[in-house]
Amino acid sequence: MTNQPTEVYRIFGAEMSPYSVKVRSYLRYKGIQHHWILRNAESEAEFARHAKLPIIPLVVAPDEVPMQDSTPIIDALELDFPQPTIHPGDALTSFISALIEEFGDEWGNKWMFHYRWARDLDQRASAGRIARIRAPRADEAELGELAEKIRARMVERLWYVGSNEINAPQIEQGFAEMLDLLERHLSVRPYLFGHRPAYGDFGLWGQLYELWTDPTAGALIEGRAPHVLAWIHRMLWPRAEGEFELWPELSLTLMPILTRQVGALFMPWTLANEQALAENRSVFRVQFGDFTWMQKPQKYHARSLAMLRGKYAFLHDRSRLDVVLEEIGCLAGLQPRPT
Ligand SMILES: N[C@@H](CCC(=O)N[C@@H](CS)C(=O)NCC(=O)O)C(=O)O
Question: How many CB atoms lie within 10 A of CB 158?
Fold first, then answer.
C-alpha cells in the first residue's frame, strides 16, 4: 500500500462496524471520492501510521490529515462539502436531527451490541463473519479458532454497553417498540426528515444496518418492518429525492419516537451515566417505569453528550425548539453544566 498523498479520502473501516458504514454512506451521499480500506492485518501498518486511537472508522484526507470519531468526522467534512446539506433549514428540525444522531450512535448501539452478542446463534454468525473478513486466506480450522477467540472477546464486552441479564428484556422491548414507531414514520417518507437524508439518518442507520445483518434482529426487521427495511437498503447509497419536510408534517410520527425513546430512555440514561462518571461510581442505576436499568458507566457518552450540548448552546433562536425539547423531556439535560 502506498504512503503517497492521494487525491481521494481514505476510510479505514469494516462492514460490521456501525460507525464505519455510517461515515461511508455519508461519503457516498456527498459524492466525496474515497477509497474504502478494510482494516485488517494487511492495512494495519498504514492504519497505525495515521490513527491516534485504536478505533474505526479512520478517515485520512488527501492532505494526510487524519480524522476519527464518526460525529466530528461528519461535522468536519460538512464544512468542506456543504452541499447537499444534511441539515434541515430550521433550527428546530436541525437540532432534532442532531439529537437523533446522538441517540442512534449511543443508544442504538445498545440494541446492536446486545442482539449481535447475547445469543449463541448470533454470536456464532457474527464471530464467523468477522473471522472470514479478518483472515480471508485462512483455512476452515484456523477460521474456527479465530472465530472462537473473537466470540469470547466480544461476549466479555457485552457488559460494557449495558447488555446483561437485568437489562436484556428492556433492550429487546425497547428495540421492538422503536421498530414499530420507525415503521410508522418511514411508511410515508423515504428518510427520517423527508425526501433526502439528514444527519440523524446516518447515526441511526449505522446501527440499524448492522442489526439487519445479524440473524435474530434481522428476522425481526424483515418480519415486522418493511419500510424500515427499505430505508436500510436506501441508506446504503443515499440520494436526494426531494426536499426536507417541515416540522408540522414530521412531528406526528416523530414525536412518539422522541418522547418514548429519546426522552424517556436515552436522556435519563445518559444523564445518569454522566453523573456516575462525575462521582466515580463503578455501577449506576436508572428507573424506567417498572424496570431498573443497571450498568457500569461509559466514558465516551459523557463526551458526546457535552458535544451535543455545545451544538444546542450555539443556536441563536431556540424558542420553538425549547417547547419541543420540554415536551419530550430533553430540555433540562441539554442546559450548560458548570465546568
Ligand atoms: N464514537 C466512535 C466509536 C467508534 C468505535 O467504537 N468503533 C469500534 C468499531 S464499531 C472500534 O473500532 N472498536 C475497537 C475495536 O474493535 O478494536 C465513532 O463514532 O466513531
Answer: 18
